[in-house]
Write a structure and sequence with these properties.
about 150 residues; alpha+beta; Alpha-D-Glucose-1,6-Bisphosphate, Chain A, domain 4; globular
Length: about 150
């Protein structure tokens, strides 16, 4: 079954990839533990998830200046985690994919934003989104590699 796809024709699209020196189960478990994001991701101020990490579950979180409400879409351990969400007049699709090569994981993330602000300020919002994705990957790498030591 094909996973979730971002909207590649949205006004704001960004993606990033990083190699992580940890098994993909470790990497996936870190990302899927939404309640613990603030422990390793400096951008995330708070999270709230009432149910289990499964498709259709809604979670609330704050990152940077944004307060977000997101819905989990694809939950396939250890290969993919995705969600959709809305904030500040925009809708977003965020997809994470993990590929393994023994004890090394390639983590790839991509996100698209649509809506009024994305149409009005595409360059500025693209820079902001790219910076955010790069930071998430760096912090995920540090957390995952720290957990295997």
């Amino acid at each position: 079954m094909p996973g979730m796809e971002i909207n590649h024709s949205a006004p704001v699209v960004a993606s990033a990839t990083i190699e992580i020196g940890a098994a993909r189960e470790i990497v996936w478990d870190l990302l899927a533990d939404i309640k613990r994001w603030p422990e390793w991701n400096a951008e995330v101020k708070s999270t709230s998830l009432a149910g289990a990490v499964e498709s259709g579950e809604v979670f609330r979180w704050a990152a940077g200046p944004a307060k977000l409400v997101s819905t989990l879409q694809t939950v396939e351990r250890p290969s993919e985690l995705s969600w959709t969400g809305r904030t500040m007049g925009m809708s977003a699709v965020h997809v994470w994919r993990f590929e393994s090569d023994g004890e090394t994981t390639t983590a790839h993330t991509e996100e698209s934003w649509e809506g009024g602000p994305a149409k009005l300020l595409p360059r500025m919002l693209h820079r902001s989104l790219q910076k955010s994705l790069d930071a998430w990957l760096g912090e995920l790498k540090a957390a995952a590699e720290g957990s295997v030591r």
